[in-house]
């Protein structure tokens, strides 16, 4: 069997090394925040009132490149309909954020928890419109999973090469009208998709972590 390419090997090492260092935090997330912001604030200020959720940023090697997976949500889910997001959802009972992220990823995408090696976590992020506090967990599988998307929750599976996200030429900005206000929205552009909002803010922190390890 052909071994991984040098590019893939370096990408995996950079990803693993990123979690041996301190996290860039909210300041890195702000690089992809809409302007003016829609009520964003630090999670610490809303811990007692927000709905806590765990999400999984899942990486895997595929075609000699490291990829991560996102989903476009259906119109039938209760929150963030038709938006692009990480697999994940609301914490149940006494679950840890890691347990929630893995459970939800299995329910939404058919990925078995035992196949995922957890690398670390990112800075939690508050989403004002839904009052959710999301806690991102980062994991990797040894090979591309056989995704089995939930028809109720997942309208589309979006697989993005890591090097595409690391390339600043793929970050765009547009003026949108959101809730009657003119807002400048930064987004990652891939395959016709505009990845913005909370998903882009979480990715911004992760990309900064990885770039520090590659420099």
Describe this protein's structure.
The structure is a single chain. 33% of the residues are buried. The chain is α+β, with helices and mostly antiparallel strands. Strands 1, 2, 3, 4, 5, 6, 7 and 8 form an 8-stranded mixed β-sheet that branches. A 3-stranded antiparallel β-sheet has the order 9-10-11. The chain is globular and about 50 Å long. It has one domain (6-210): Nucleoside Triphosphate Pyrophosphohydrolase (Alpha-Beta Complex), CATH 3.90.79.10. It has helices spanning 6-18, 26-29, 97-109, 162-166, 197-214; strands spanning 51-62, 65-73, 84-85, 88-90, 117-121, 125-127, 132-140, 154-161, 171-178, 181-190, 193-195. The mean pLDDT is 92. The longest helix is centred in the last third of the chain and has 18 residues, at 197-214.
What Rg do the Cα atoms give?
A: 17 Å
Order of helices and strands: HHEEEEHEEEEHEEEH
Taken as a percent bin, the fraction of beta residues is: 25-35%
Question: CATH topology, which one?
Answer: Nucleoside Triphosphate Pyrophosphohydrolase
The residue fraction in helices comes out at 10-25%
Main sheet record: 8 strands, mixed
Number of strands: 11
**So, CATH architecture?**
Alpha-Beta Complex
- Structural class, from helix and strand content? alpha+beta
The shape, in one word, is globular
Under CATH, the homologous superfamily reads Nucleoside Triphosphate Pyrophosphohydrolase
Mean pLDDT: 92
CATH class bucket: Alpha Beta
For the record, the count of structural domains works out to: 1
How widely separated are the two ends?
31 Å
Q: Can you tell me the residue ranges where pLDDT is under 50 for at least 5 consecutive residues?
A: none
Number of helices: 5
